[in-house]
Amino acid sequence: xxxxxxxxxxxxxxxxxxxxxxxxxxxxxxxxxxxxxxxxxxxxxxxxxxxxxxxxxxxxxxxxxxxxxxxxxxxxxxxxxxxxxxxxxxxxxxxxxxxxxxxxxxxxxxxxxxxxxxxxxxxxxxxxxxxxxxxxxxxxxxxxxxxxxxxxxxxxxxxxxxxxxxxxxxxxxxxxxxxxxxxxxxxxxxxxxxxxxxxxxxxxxxxxx
Length: 209
Description:
Elements: E1 7-13, H1 15-22, H2 26-32, E2 36-42, E3 56-60, E4 70-74, E5 78-83, H3 86-89, E6 106-109, H4 116-120, E7 135-136, H5 139-147, E8 152-156, H6 161-166, E9 178-180, E10 183-188, H7 195-208
Parallel strand pairs: 1-2, 1-3, 6-7, 6-8
Antiparallel strand pairs: 3-10, 4-10, 5-8, 5-9
């Protein structure tokens, strides 16, 4: 017997978080909450929750002044590390030290809170030319380019779990890196206790813990 969904949850997210983290896990949420019909919209434009028909807005970047009645919750911090395709490790210049990066293209994520310049402050003894290399305004494009062997990207471990699990990407210097808090959950105070909103919020933080 067909039963109608009892509730609709509308989530707005940045494109990279939606593509790289949220989409691979939506089946888990749906299996736990089959009564909630989730609608996902992705863009980098911030949403005014007091005007838009959006329940939860997942944002990245510096906090902005929010309208009255809006609640902002920080997601756990993320770790940023260099990432590359395994094929680079099998070529003429495998990446074993920071100096080996001189032989490879550095991929830049222009909207990432941490860039190669920040990373190189920890490795001043090995100068690199960080002015060259392709630049992308979406992390998922930088991640895809690195997985395709274009070069080495500097990205969040939060966004590349699928690529690490499948072996499309590796972390040549390990998983210790710069930590940054960039993602927030934005919602209306008046909707905090709605079952659909609370269910998604609890699930999100549980998945990220």
